[in-house]
Amino acid sequence: MSDIILEVKDLNVEFDTYGGIVKAVRGVDFSVKKGKTLAIVGESGCGKSVTVQSIMGLIPMPPGRVTKGSAKLKGKEILGLSTKELNEIRGKEVGMIFQDAMSSLNPTMKIGDQIAETLKVHRGMSHGEAIKKAIELLAKTRIPEPERRANQYPFEFSGGMLQRSMISVALACSPTLLIADEPTTALDVTIQMQILELIKDLQKTEQMSLIIITHDLGVVAQVADEVAVMYAGKIAETGPVDNIFYEASHPYTEGLRMAMPQNDEHVHKRLRPIEGSPPDLFSPPKGCGYFARCPYAMKICEKNDPLKFLVKPNHYSFCWLSHEQAPKVKREIFVPRSQ
User: Fold this and answer.
1) In what order do the strands lie in the sheet with 94-97?
2) Interatomic CA distance for residues 90 and 56, integer angstroms
3) Would you call 164 helix, strand, or coil by DSSP?
4) What does the pLDDT look like over 64-85, one tens digit per residue?
């Protein structure tokens, strides 16, 4: 277990709303190994961001609350820690890149000062030392003219440069674990590729573990070692990235995969979206959350929550189709995108 940086078990998160209690995360388990990348994948509203934000104490409480579960960072339980204790971890042990850099950065502070603030709080540096280090971090994230840029405000930066600045803030204290929540949202394809390559390079040089949250399977293919597919607040399938892409077991994973556009000139097919809508998490279904949308649904799926089935080494599926007595179904053949 010494190579496990973060281990989450049976995490449950709820929110009180005017309409009732939303059960946003329902019994999630996953782990992140030293130096490895875990991608948490799923459509909007499946609980990806809430999962990691609740672990780091970033959801508003109330209305949110963690009702059950465990999250251990390097063997130490971090769920239930006070704000003061969590502040010792956030930024120092765990860095986080948020979805919208413009709303995450302080518009009234210069970029260099925002990076320096983390260094002064966690490393006890003087203002001069922290600014010098901030300039080095901007240079490391490939921002041109870092000395000049450190003296500018967020509104003077482009979207890609803002995202690089957020990465600089997250890496300031050389964290053990970096969490990237949709790090390429609203960026064009060229900048998206640059940001992903930058994160991969920095992960190698800094020897960090990485959790990347995304709904884009193309991003997953580029950066992940392991993948956890989420649906309706639960893990649907988890395993090595190649298994998830080319030997998916859960019908939801298969649906996501078959909806991917392909840039292979020999493959011409109409994109096929997943029909229907996710279940209402005010009143989650008793059985499999994907039952109403699944083309292979069986009677057992409606009332019985699927067990965790071992498909292949380190590859697990929460689907009754993986049961040894389940009927064999003809699966779609996925043609990988050309490199």
Assistant:
1) 94-97, 177-181, 209-214, 37-41, 226-231, 234-240, 315-317, 309-312
2) 7
3) helix
4) 999 999 999 999 999 988 888 9
